Amino acid sequence: MTHYKLIYFDARGFGELARQLFHLAGVPFEDVRISFEELMPGKQSAYWLELKEKTPFGRLPVLSIDGFELGQSSAIHRYLAKKFGYSGKTPEEEAWADAIVDQFKDYMESFRLFIYAQREGKSVEEVKTIHDKKYVPAKNQFLEAIDKILKTNKTGYLVGNGLTWADLVVADHLFTLRNI
């Protein structure tokens, strides 16, 4: 039996979709979560520093598949979706699911700018400008595109007539938006 080990922080973030795919597929996996205390400057644990050095790109998440290390969240999610049957039923459905996720990633750049501006302690005016001029227009454009896709498809799914990783990406982000 294949041994899967997902390494990510003790948060939803870029690791949650992989966790969801494992659970949907009923496939056991080792869920290694790095605590935020281990990341604090000056207090970084030896485990984290060593792990960071060994990751394919110096960041998380990483999925280990019987020792094969795969980095980058989208590559991990795409791999798991394909492996577990959530990538689409035809090459065209797979391509459309990938396109929706790529559009999501483009939108996420504005979301990250907004979140990081808050976390980095930028002035209230700077945060408001990023929110109003970058994030809100990008969010509205993305959500309008998703709404149009759902209305066109008429199945309740973004792609074809079944659940794909694109549905999971969008649903997980909507959950995040509701809870920030």
TrEMBL record:
EC number: 2.5.1.18
InterPro entries reported in the protein's UniProt record: Glutathione-S-Trfase_C-like, Glutathione-S-Trfase_C_sf, Glutathione_S-Trfase, Glutathione_S-Trfase_N, GST_C, GST_superfamily, Thioredoxin-like_sf
UniProt entry keywords in alphabetical sequence: Transferase
Group of enzyme by EC: transferase
GO molecular function (one): glutathione transferase activity
PANTHER family: GLUTATHIONE S-TRANSFERASE, GLUTATHIONE S-TRANSFERASE-RELATED
Protein name per Swiss-Prot or TrEMBL: glutathione transferase
